[in-house]
Design brief:
Length: 359
């Protein structure tokens, strides 16, 4: 029975994955899903999966047999048709990342240089005469008891009974082993000037969720930092990043300067894989500040990061000029990725623009 249940559960999980893969573009633009995320899983609404309903009618015999009055207490009649239900299914971030990678054909990331940190892991290395009962090695204990009884002449092959005593017990022994693990930091930057409205911020929030999902699948240790900017940049927490309401002009260089300060102070390129993401509608206050941005990127940021990603979200108030300036100044570098995001439907293509090279 348990085997059948496991098989049924496996088939159901495959159905769920297939449905998510089929409608991935819709899920990527759906903010409702992100509102139901936990530490290890996210609840995904799947209205297309149908749950069968029982048909109630006359009993066919057995205990309780009888006609009854057939009167129900509510409107409508019972039937045997499948009902349309929104089924919420918990899916792990690992499963989501695998679906995302397969559907968008994302390559696995090769860590740049030796950016690794160490973690401690317990590893069983041998057998000991002392230890907790939870680590008792049954086969070795049985073997020691058998050897003792044979040596003492108390073992009867015709009526074999092996009874371990304290001296026979053997336990698995272990020691902590230090292993290197790749570490990454994601630095999100977003323009929150007046031209970046609620919808533009929601697009950034959705895209950041999928970026996080993929990079956490690639690296065991991931940290995230958040910077908002108009004419001045400041570091904030995740909630403030996606919900703040600001206005005023835009000096993009202020965000890049703050990002570089965080990286230089806390994330050595020799130990960390560094991923800055900047989202804006393409407006900058002046051509002189744009020139300052290009110099910051070329001389300070790009030499230290795995790749720099700029996503330009369409806004009816934004000029869209900044991505053109980046395209003109960085035509040959492999460490920069640019993406235009017209609306929520463009999130899938933008993710592939950013992560499709495996840097």
């Amino acid at each position: 029975m348990p085997l059948n249940i496991d098989n049924d559960l496996h088939r159901f999980r495959q159905i769920v994955k297939g449905r998510i893969r089929k409608d991935l573009k819709g899920f990527m633009s759906n903010g409702e899903m992100i509102g139901k995320q936990g530490k290890k899983v996210v609840s995904i609404p799947l209205p297309q999966i149908q749950i069968p309903r029982f048909r109630y009618g006359k009993n066919q015999g057995g205990v309780g047999q009888g006609e009854g009055d057939g009167k129900g207490q509510g409107p409508g009649e019972a039937g045997d048709k499948a009902g349309q239900h929104v089924l919420e299914v918990d899916v792990t971030y690992e499963e989501l990342a695998e679906i995302l990678g397969e559907e968008l054909e994302l390559p696995n990331i090769e860590p740049r240089g030796a950016k690794e940190i160490s973690t401690s892991r317990d590893k069983y290395t041998g057998i000991s005469k002392l230890g907790p009962e939870s680590l008792r090695h049954s086969r070795r204990t049985f073997k020691e008891a058998l050897k003792r009884q044979v040596a003492a002449g108390s073992y009867d092959p015709k009526s074999p009974r092996i009874i371990p005593v304290k001296e026979d017990k053997r336990y698995r022994s272990w020691k902590a082993k230090t292993e290197p693990q790749s570490a990454a930091v994601i630095v999100y930057m977003m323009d929150v000037s007046g031209s970046m409205g609620k919808e533009q911020k929601e697009i950034v929030r959705l895209e950041a969720f999928w970026i996080d999902t993929w990079l956490r699948h690639q690296y065991k240790n991931v940290e995230t930092r958040f910077i908002i900017h108009d004419a001045v940049a400041k570091e904030v927490d995740r909630h403030t990043f996606f919900h703040t309401r600001e206005s005023g002009g835009t000096l993009i260089s202020s965000a890049y300067k703050l990002a570089m300060k965080i990286i230089d102070d806390e994330y050595s390129p020799s130990e960390w894989n560094i991923y800055p993401f900047h989202f804006s509608d393409g407006d900058n206050w002046s051509s002189s500040d744009t020139k300052a941005c290009m110099e910051l990127l070329k001389n300070d940021m790009l030499p230290k990061v795995n790749q720099f990603c700029y996503g330009q979200v369409d806004s009816e108030y934004g000029s869209g000029q900044f991505i053109k300036d980046l395209e003109a100044n960085f035509t040959d570098t492999e460490f920069m990725r640019l993406s235009r995001i017209p609306d929520r439907e463009g999130i899938m293509n933008s993710i592939k623009d950013f992560l499709g090279k495996g840097n």
